[in-house]
Amino acid sequence: LKSDYGRKIALQQSTPETDATVRVDVTSYRHNLRSMIGMARANRFELVFMTQPSTWNSGVDPGARDRHWMRVYDGVVYREDTMDAALEQLNDVMRTVAAEDSVPLYDLARALPKSLEFFYDDCHFTRAGALATGRGLAHFLMENAVVPAVSATSIGGGEQN
Fold first, then answer.
1. Is the pTM of this model over 0.85?
2. Nearest Cα to 139, choosing from 100, 99, 107, 94?
3. What is the distance between the alpha carbons of residues 18 and 85, in angstroms, rounded to a whole number?
4. Biggest CA-to-CA distance, the chain
5. 3-state DSSP call for residue 7?
């Protein structure tokens, strides 16, 4: 398999940036989340929400901007702060719905630094990011009694956290 990741980065870097805001349909998103909750409860399975992190508007790793390719849409590139705010609107809806409907929420967007240590582009994990996410989610599930507690060695191959 061959990726066209480099071409996508080049396209974004050669496309003009806009000051326009990103349209976010929070009403439909809220409805979709509540539909998932209803389906989970109707079928008697435990649902856990997890927010979506990104490297947009990183304060810890400004070099992440050089690896972004997902801010381009319909011939323009949206600013990092605009994209970050739009994603945060969706994450806020998830946080609210989770609280209102008593759904466990792992807030990965707040737990994982916006760093190239954890992401190789806008939102895809490096190996370290996948490991940190998996471990963090496993601990969250155990701490919130979503799954039975297991020993620390069964999470992460014997390494202590």
1. yes
2. 107
3. 15
4. 52
5. helix
